[in-house]
Design goal:
- The structure is a single chain.
- By secondary structure, the chain is α+β, with helices and mostly antiparallel strands.
- It has two domains: 145 residues, 2-Layer Sandwich (Uridine Diphospho-n-acetylenolpyruvylglucosamine Reductase, domain 2); 233 residues, Cytochrome p450, CATH 1.10.630.
- 59% of the residues lie in helices and 9% in strands.
- It is built from 15 helices and nine strands.
- The strands form three sheets. It has a five-stranded mixed β-sheet. Strands 4-5 form a two-stranded antiparallel sheet.
- Helix 8 crosses helix 9 and helix 9 packs antiparallel against helix 10.
- It is globular.
- The termini are far apart.
- Keywords: Iron, Membrane, Metal-binding, Transmembrane, Transmembrane helix.
- It comes from Gossypium hirsutum.
- This is Beta-amyrin 11-oxidase isoform X3.
- Belongs to the cytochrome P450 family.
Length: 391
């Protein structure tokens, strides 16, 4: 037993020393190539600083990754590192962030598209993004404007608040808001006819998929990523089942509870062809991620800030009460005109988004040889990722 322990200890020490030597050699070999780049740390060979980045992202203080670089190399606003298998530049000053985010001639979308989103479906997000945006915008403008969903949204909100008020134990606010927002997304995109049990089941498996997006992609039993892959398979089957049921209802019912997805199915997606069934599934998973996370986090933080600032909560409440008082007695439910009158609440939401942004970082990729600060050189090969952080 003692011999085995000594053997393990020797192997571990040898591994650490060897890896440390490789790290130093890796840094020295890259000094000439990196001499025109800003200060920073390239991390370990191959894996770089990816583990440190993910650990910070999943912690209570995701800014700790960039703050450590500031402490070690000064507040230069730009640093070199190595993330997700590629050499990268981190930008965190207002001026440089603006340049990276607005210069479409030299930078393009650089997010690593996870297989948890697209699976085995060939779906090029970079080339499809604008096309999908056009399709959704057309549906909202011509077929289902936001005002047409107000009744459904109001009903779900009222029912959810009533359910919360009847709970005898304190609610877990974050998961409950996530469930509530997911139900809203389903109602808007799939229509109001989806069964509550189906929605709850899809939300459960979607949650496991989302957690897997921020883990090391090791598809072996016991790892979070593997659990996410398995959850995605179940989620895809459930989405297919819901879409299939909707098609059957449309055949038998001339006026079903339509959602945005019904119009997307009929719209011309590419070369005058409609979107395939598999592409619709991938699109829905992407919309779940884009819709639930941004909306629920904004609602959660706005609630927290209003709770911590009672005088602001009082002003927001007064505005709502005044709007209700001006309603004609014949009106039932919220109107789009009333939403436009919520000037103060709009400021609350905008200030929440300013203080607590939904994105920890935004990835952009250099398309051409590009200079930042007249000295930092980025190329489409080599230092090609540029992560922009808010100032």
């Amino acid at each position: 037993m003692e011999l085995d322990l000594w053997s393990i200890a020797i192997i571990v020490v040898t591994f650490v020393v060897s890896f440390g030597f490789l790290k130093k050699a890796y840094e020295r070999l890259g000094q000439q190539q990196l001499k025109s780049l800003p200060p920073g740390d390239m991390g370990w060979p191959l894996i770089g600083n990816t583990w440190s980045f993910i650990r910070a992202y999943k912690s209570q203080n995701p800014e700790s990754f960039i703050n450590n670089l500031k402490k070690r190399y000064g507040k230069t606003g730009i640093y070199k590192t190595h993330l997700f298998g590629k050499a990268s530049i981190l930008v965190c000053s207002a001026e440089l962030c603006k340049k990276v985010l607005t210069d479409d001639n030299n930078f393009q979308w650089g997010y690593p598209v996870s297989n948890l989103i697209q699976g085995d479906v060939p779906f090029d997000y970079m080339s499809s993004h604008r096309r999908l945006h056009r399709l959704v915008t057309t549906v909202l403008n011509q077929h289902q404007p936001p005002s047409s969903h107000l009744g459904t949204i109001e009903k779900i909100v009222i029912n959810t608040l009533e359910e919360w008020s009847k709970m005898k134990e304190p609610i877990l606010f974050v998961p409950e808001v996530n469930k509530f927002v997911f139900k809203l997304i389903i109602a808007i995109f799939l229509g109001s006819g989806t069964d509550d049990n189906q929605i709850a089941s899809m939300e459960e498996y979607y949650r496991k998929v989302y957690y897997g997006l921020h883990t090391t992609p090791i598809n072996i039993p016991g790892f979070a990523y593997h659990r996410a892959v398995q959850a995605r398979k179940v989620l895809v089957n459930k989405i297919r089942g819901v879409l299939g049921e909707r098609r059957e209802r449309r055949c038998n019912d001339p006026d079903p509870n339509t959602g945005i997805i019904d119009f997307l199915e009929k719209a011309d997606y590419e070369d005058s062809r409609p979107m395939s069934h598999e592409h619709l599934v991938v699109l829905l998973i992407g919309l779940f991620i884009a819709g639930r996370e941004t909306t629920s986090r904004t609602a959660i933080w706005a609630t927290i800030y209003l709770h911590n600032h009672p005088h602001l909560l009082h002003k927001a409440k007064e505005e709502q009460e005044e709007i209700v008082k001006r309603r004609p007695s014949s009106q039932k439910g919220l109107t789009f005109t009333e939403i436009k009158q919520m000037k103060y609440l709009s400021k609350v939401i905008n200030e929440t988004l300013r203080i607590r942004t939904n994105n920890f970082s935004i990835f952009r990729e250099a398309k051409n040889v590009t200079y930042l600060n007249d000295t930092t050189r980025l190329e489409s090969v080599g230092m090609d990722k540029c992560s922009s952080y808010g100032p």
